[in-house]
Structure prediction request, 307 residues.
Amino acid sequence: MSLLIAGTMAFDAIETPFGKTDKIIGGSATYAAWSASHFTQPIKQISIIGGDFPESEIEALKNRGVSFEGVDVRADEKSFFWSGRYHMDMNTRDTLVTDLNVLEKFDPELPESYQDCEFLMLGNLMPSLQQKIISQLRNRPKLIIMDTMNFWMDIAMDDLKATIKMVDVLMVNDGEARQLSNEYSLVKAAQKIMAMGPKFLIIKKGEHGALLFHGSHVLFSPALPLEEVFDPTGASDTSAGGFIGHLVRTKDISFNKMKTAIIIGSEMDSFVVEKFGHARLTEITTADISHRLNYFVDLVNFDIDLI
Ligand code: AMP
Prediction:
């Protein structure tokens, strides 16, 4: 079993109402790989970085079983840079800067050793590139999950819709689901989006949890009410990494298994938001993950008597 993760590896600068960072490590594929590596290894990474991407981060990821054979390193160029500012509710943010840098030249070529992958996670990336990665795989993976963002809906909607058609699970937030479907009701939005191709849809609602749709079924996963949320950046990539990591580990892609996978995704989110950037994902242990899972069980577990 192996997992291929594609997406950005980047520098981010983040402002929240409670603090601010200069350039720190970010990127959709970085968050996803750190998160998934707690559940499955090896991971085959597809991305592009500049010579400025720290060697220490590359080594740390390699130590977590992440292969860099598919990472294009452009020594004389700069890595992708993104900067964002969160509003007081920490659920919404404005993008301040998107400097594509090396991403403008990204033309992914899958190494031969990546051909055996059975699970593919397409992190946030230009939809045309996500499509190119799928089409290079000689055998279609058992499961393809895709994340995206409003940025691509604004500038590449046609490409995005063509890519969505090719995947099994789409992950978007509530605002993006509404933008993609032109529906305010998330139930109606989910039906319209699933009609575009994916059999499963995850709609993330920040501190209000996430919904997993499949046909006429819907499952709610809570987000853990935390005393302090420091930085929500990377939450969707982190939960996607936890979600797919759990499925790869259990080798089961049934709807029932996805119900637990989405809880694992929400749990990984509850860690990543506790510090700026991906720091928490690099510190936590299997024991921490297992311990925190009990809070999720308690959160939704109740006895009820009607009379
Ligand atoms: P998330 O908070 O999960 O939506 O993802 C934030 C991460 O996505 C950041 O670490 C950014 O580096 C990365 N990112 C931001 N904009 C883009 C974009 N247009 N394409 C790909 N990755 C992006």
Q: What stands out?
A: The first strand starts at residue 3 and ends at 6.
